[in-house]
Amino acid sequence: MSRRQYNLPPLTSLSAFEAAARHLSFKRAAVELSVTPGAISHQIKALEGDLGADLFVRKHRGVDLTEDGHDLLEVLGSSFRRISAVLEKIRNGDSENQVTVGSTTAVAALWLSPSVIRFWQEYPHIKVNQLAQDQPFTDRPDIDFFIRYGQQASASLTYTKLYRDTLTPVCSPEMARDLKGASLKDLAECRLINLETQDNSWTTWTSWFRDLGFQGDIPVQSRVNSYALALQMARKGAGLALGWKRLVRPMLSSGKLAALDAFTLPAPENFFLVGRPDDQLSDGARALKTWLLDELPEA
Q1: Is residue 161, in this structure, part of any structural domain at all?
Q2: Is the dihedral of CA 67, 68, 73, 79 positive or negative?
Q3: Is beta strand 145-149 parallel, antiparallel or unpaired with respect to 127-132?
Q4: 215-271: per-residue pLDDT in tens?
Q5: End position of a domain, from candidates 56, 89, 122
Q6: pLDDT, tens digit (0-9, with 9 covering 90-100), for 84-99
Q7: Region 176-198 average pLDDT
Q8: Range of 37's domain?
Q9: Is residue 134 part of a domain?
Q10: How does DSSP assign the chain, residue by residue?
């Protein structure tokens, strides 16, 4: 009789592999698991020896997954998320009526939070936890889904399209009046508020001007690491911010910001709701997901 009921390798080695495969980095896996990179390497070598197969392709800089590695990561990721959901249910006693959603601080303030408030009024028994950060979200067992601009290939996450926004310079109403009839060259000579974040999927001023055919110099005079801060500076007359028009609609409607509608460009990517498949979501998470999608025509 096998000493291991399910004929599994040690869970420590499976955990080390899952973290290293998800990050494609032994070093980042070590940081996540609070061990040394050498310990991660040792566990993975032991796992590969147990299985009699290579799970990683070792490169000069970094690693990649073999076909067997991809298959194992997919099933481990799904299994670990299911285990995490059950543990959360045990801890909280009512996880079916809880949901956690992530977004950037700007998306949270301008769109998600108002929608969640309306959701609470209809579903007061469902507890919604919001996580707001301006670093890219990744697959995490404590998050049901998050809002992301742009799409990345992922075997474990489901992408549901929300909408495609339009990009338009926004500024104070006074500055908008001064720029009436301005050219792209005139805009390039204004103070441009540049957003710099760890997420390089966001459109920059440079790419926006190039997509509109402008070939002149685009000086970088002002940098911020928060879109909410960029909008606040634009509102106070400190320069032009690149406006995601649907997202900033509340500020446009209230007159806090004005859009230079003569210069409008479709965003290169869509906004997506990213998370686990519906059959892995709690009742509360599925209810909020449906609510957010149903609200879009009115957004």
Answers
A1: no
A2: positive
A3: unpaired
A4: 988 887 788 888 888 999 999 999 999 999 999 999 999 999 999 999 999 999 899
A5: 89
A6: 767 766 666 655 678 9
A7: 91
A8: 11-89
A9: yes
A10: --SSTT-PPPHHHHHHHHHHHHHT-HHHHHHHHTS-HHHHHHHHHHHHHHHTS--EEE-SSSEEE-HHHHHHHHHHHHHHHHHHHHHHHHHHS-GGGEEEEEE-HHHIIIIIHHHHHHHHHH-TTSEEEEEE-SSPP---TT-SEEEEES----SS-EEEEEE--EEEEEE-HHHHHHTTT--HHHHHTSPEEEE--S-TTSPPHHHHHHHTT--S-----EEES-HHHHHHHHHTTS-EEEEETTTTHHHHHTTSSEE-TTS-EE-SS-EEEEES-GGGS-HHHHHHHHHHHHHGGG-
Indicate whether 250 belongs to any domain.
Answer: yes
> What pLDDT, on the 0 to 100 scale, is given for residue 299?
46
Same domain, 207 and 63: no
Count of beta carbons in the 10 Å neighbourhood of residue 86? 11
For residue 74, which amino acid is it? E
- Do 19 and 85 fall into the same domain? yes
Provide the mean pLDDT of the chain.
88
What is the per-residue pLDDT for 130?
Answer: 93
Q: Which of 107-111, 121-125, 137-141, 264-268 has the lowest mean pLDDT?
A: 137-141
- Is the domain of 183 the same as that of 201? yes
Q: What is the mean pLDDT of residues 69-74?
A: 92
The total domain count for the chain is 3
**What confidence category does residue 115 fall into, taking pLDDT thresholds of 50, 70 and 90?**
very high
Residues 282 and 134 in one domain: yes
In this structure, are 82 and 111 located in the same domain? no
User: 56-80 burial, b if ≥16 CB within 10 A, otherwise e?
Assistant: beeeeeebebeeebeebbeebbeeb
Are 17 and 83 in the same domain? yes
Per the domain annotation, does 6 fall within a domain?
A: no
Residue 139 has pLDDT above 70, yes or no: yes
Does 15 score more than 70 pLDDT?
Answer: yes
